[in-house]
Amino acid sequence: MSAAENTPAPQVLSIVGEMTIYRAIELKQTLLAPLAQAGSIYVDLSGVTEIDAAGVQLLMLVRQLADTRQKELRLVACSPAVLDVLELLNLKTYLDPPRESP
Fold first, then answer.
1. How remote is the C-alpha of 45 from its chain's centroid?
2. Virtual CA dihedral for 1, 70, 102, 58, nearest 10 degrees?
3. pTM score
């Protein structure tokens, strides 16, 4: 059996709607819970219609905890709203660093 066969499939989280202060508690629980069990977590942000500072802080928290726990975290898709904010704040590379080629 190879290492690839032992690797569990990544857990995919899809966030839809706003990533704002009004949903911060709900989204925090949604984003942090998988860090306790999943090996890899893919966060699909293609359905995010709006993101504010609270949403950015949540993404930064999840990145920090994933790194601390040595979990793979990938932003697999970003809506235009998310891309605009990440580019404005120069956070795209921090939140979703480029992957090394094998």
1. 8
2. 120
3. 0.85
